[in-house]
Specification:
The chain is mainly β. The protein contains no helices and 9 strands. InterPro entries: YjdM, YjdM_C, YjdM_N.
Length: 117
């Protein structure tokens, strides 16, 4: 193990390695640029819902359009409430981590939800 490699900012694994210009964690597959800050949510910036409301961890949101979900015959219907969201830097544009009743854990795009007041 190279002593100069920083631990993974996601899972704190010490066995990180270089792959091109990125650092990679073999345990959680997280990739980041050298010198990037830990992902504690502070560098995510402001995440807004479909109508411009600022979202925060723990908010309740409503899905504004029906979504297809692999492995689910019904998908997620418009109007479904999702409680206790967590803002993340997910895959692609997906920036909300949540658990939906009847479906399970998944990531959503903030552009398809509206904050419930």
């Amino acid at each position: 193990m190279n002593e100069t490699m920083p631990p993974c900012p996601e899972c704190a694994c010490e066995y990180t390695y270089e792959m091109g210009a990125l650092l990679v964690c073999p345990e959680c597959a997280h990739e980041w640029a050298p010198g990037a800050a830990a992902t504690d949510g502070s560098e995510l910036g402001t995440i807004k819902d479909a109508v411009g409301n600022v979202l925060a961890d723990g908010d309740t949101v409503t899905v504004i359009k029906s979504l297809k979900v692999k492995g689910s015959p019904t998908g997620i219907k418009a109007g479904t409430k999702v409680r206790n969201i967590r803002l993340v830097d997910g895959v692609g544009d997906h920036d909300i981590d949540c658990k939906i009743d009847g479906i399970g854990p998944m990531q959503l795009k903030s552009s398809v939800v509206k904050k419930t007041m």
